User: Fold Heme biosynthesis protein HemY from Ideonella alba.
Amino acid sequence: MRSLIWLVLIFTVAVVSATVLGRNDALVSVFYDQWRLDLSLNLFLLLLLGAVLLTFAALQAASGLLSLPGRAREWRLLKRERAAHAALREAWRELLAARYARAQRAAQRALELQADVPELKGDVGFSVLAQMAAASGQHRLQDRRGRDERVRQALAMARDRNLPGAAADGVQLLAAEWALDDRDATRSLALLGELPPGVARRTQALRLRLQAARMKRQPLMALQTARLLAKHQGFSAEAARSLLRSLAIEALEGGYDLQQLQQVWQALDASERADAWVLARAARRACDLGHPEQGRQWLQPAWDQIARLEPDARKELSLALVACAAGAGTDWLNRVETALARHGHEAPLVAAAGAVFAERQLWGKARRPLEQTAAADDLPARVRRDALRRLAQLAREQDDEATAARHEQRAAGLD
Assistant:
């Protein structure tokens, strides 16, 4: 196609030339002093065109010759700029390859080359990337003082030049992560607290906040962060459920009096309060603090629907009721009898029924469940020990001191 276009252009030029220059009737005379030079018009035009082209070529050659020093300087600057970019790429490449000392040297070389290139001196993004590459290498090499100094410089540059937020946010996120590596949860939380609201809700920021909160033993903060992570699908559904459960239990463990425990309980979500494991741990914690009535109050709604729960959930609730049986009223008799009628083959539920019957001193109903509980090897030792002590109490009620002593001895032998 290109050849065809050139051929058409050549033919066009030939036609125009033949039309314009076909007749050579004109004459051009040049007078100089006593000399006279006669030229045909066509020759004069060709010479004039040649002179113009020659003059243009001479001017171009002179311009190129005079611009050689400037072009050489630009070439040297371009070479330094390319070397600086190459050093920065090498720094990150060595960093990813776990050659941290080389990465630090390459980043420092990039910064030195940047200082020699006017076009790069004002490039704050380049400086921040180089500083963070060097800081990452220093962090891996345990040079905390040098790392913190580079982080400070990178943050100062990013903020002073109003660099787009991604740079400063990235520096702060890395600094918060490194603070966690140093086991400094307070500093990590402080850095995360300086992030803009939108950045603070990003998955990485939430993960760091969760780790810092757990490290600082603040389960409620960790629980709130874990909820946000679960909402953002930062975990799988099963992992999120397990994590939220463990954090809720940890928060309940931190209640050292009933008021504090109630405050933690109210801070939990409805789904967390409905979780059998969380509910059971809250009830047991209330019993440990000397308030079994509060534990039973929390257990009551779940026990009213215990037939709908999974066996593992019934086990947790049953064992919690065993711990909170002290002072159980007559309203619990109907609940445990109904549950026993439906799931009498489950040892934890039998243990709960025996504990409630014994607490109400219904020894006729309590004997069989207590004996089954004492013989169930799959139950916790403390539950079997409580059953044996209640059986000893029943034996003493019947003036059978030998049987009571035997039960006490068995209870003492359980670890």
Q: What stands out?
A: The chain has a mean pLDDT of 86. The longest strand covers residues 27-32. Residues 391 and 407 are 7 Å apart (CA to CA).
